[in-house]
Amino acid sequence: MYGRPKFLDSFKCSEDLVRMQIVITGAQGQLGRTLIDQSQIMGCGVQAPPEDDLDITDPAKVDRVISLLRPDLVINTAAYTQVDQAESEEAIAFKVNKGGCTNLARTCAQHQIPLLHISTDYVFDGSKGKAYLETDPISPLGVYGRSKADGEIEIRKYLKQHMIIRTSWLYGSHGQNFVKTVLNLARTQKTIRVVADQYGSPTNAGDLACAILTIAQRLQFKNEVGWGTYHYCGQGVISWYQFAQKILELARLHADIKTARIEPITTAEYPTAARRPIYSALDCSRIQKNFGTHPLPWEQSLQGTVKDLMAGH
Fold first, then answer.
1. What gap in Å lies between CA 57 and CA 96, rounded to an integer?
2. Angstrom distance (rounded) from CA 246 to CA 133
3. What mean pLDDT comes out for the span 192-214?
4. I need a surface site. Which of 39, 91, 217, 303 has the fewest CB within 10 A?
5. 225 lies in a domain?
6. What is the mean pLDDT of residues 71-94?
7. Would you say residue 1 has pLDDT above 80?
8. Is residue 1 part of a domain?
């Protein structure tokens, strides 16, 4: 189970937040399941309808559920996230990542319900060479990034009371992610090859979930909230190769692993269907200033997740 980031040391859900009716979409996904975990730790009540009931690609289902529950806030974590597969499944990616946002934003606007939506660093092309601000122009390289960028546009088009949080390199105990992949390979492979020329900021799903629920408390006071786009990711910028090195270093503290060496390779040596940004770090100063959410150093957040995953095998 996840713990609490430092900025939540003295935080407990207020009575107003406990009374808030929060609906989470994508409840079976990595972040959705983590939000449910954290809401229990923090004493916050959430409702997480199953996908069959709340399929964001179905406008009738979206309207039916939102009209019935009448929540104070909708948190959208539902997304098509298969970056490479999206190149051959463009219609599906856009149906979920763009069309789903259209349906949610329209329904939330009709019922005057704020929407908090999770987006991605892949809306950028990585050519800036330093951390991206929320105001930087977007230029996605692949289908996944374009579909997420279009989803952002749809939300801004239909709903004033929205918050879009872009994050990066998300990992945790639920779902499929880079940390789990490396640990699985470490049990069977003597050498692992990892790309060393793509840079970003790993983000712990538990940390992001805590930040989202903290922000939810502020969203009660709708007139005092700075609506718009924000960035949230782990503190620090590293390569996938450096990330893998740290994962294995921590794993060795808990069990013997087979991998003895990680081989750094270039992007060109590891061709994929989708192009990825070379440098997609995000500047998080705006969300820190407006909500007091200070992301932990990525190494610190990684420790607990690796420990939990190693204990589970």
1. 6
2. 27
3. 95
4. 91
5. yes
6. 96
7. no
8. no
In angstroms, the Cα distances linking 259 to 97, 192, 220, 267 are: 37, 7, 49, 22
pLDDT of residue 2: 39
Q: Is residue 194 part of a domain?
A: no
What tokens were used for 61? 């289902």
Alpha helices in 187-239 (DSSP H): 205-218
Residues pairing with 164 in the sheet:
117, 229
- Domain range for 47: 6-177+201-237+280-296
For residue range 25-36, list pLDDT tens digits in order: 998 999 999 999
CATH of the domain at 119: 3.40.50.720
Cβ neighbours of residue 94 closer than 8 Å, sequence gap 6 or more: 143, 146, 147, 150
Residue 231 forms part of a structural domain: yes
Average the pLDDT over 4-20 and give the result: 45
Identify the residue whose tokens are 């200070």. 294
How far is Cα 238 from Cα 198, in angstroms, rounded to an integer? Answer: 8
**Residue pair 53/69 in contact by the 8 Å Cβ criterion:** no
Is 144 a catalytic site residue? yes
Q: Sort 188 into a burial class: Cβ within 10 Å, 0-12 / 13-18 / 19+.
A: exposed
Per the structure, the count of domains in the chain is 1
Judge whether residue 125 has pLDDT over 80: yes
Query: pLDDT tens digits, residue range 34-57?
Result: 999 888 777 777 888 988 899 999
131-168, pLDDT tens digit by residue? 999 999 999 999 999 999 999 999 999 999 999 999 99
228: left (phi over 0), alpha (psi -120 to 50) or beta: left
Residue 33 to residue 38: CA distance in whole angstroms: 9
d(CA 35, CA 47) in angstroms, rounded, equals 11
Q: What is the pTM of this model?
A: 0.91
Residue among 2, 122, 132, 144 flagged as catalytic:
144
Q: How many CA atoms lie within 13 A of 277 on its CB side?
A: 29
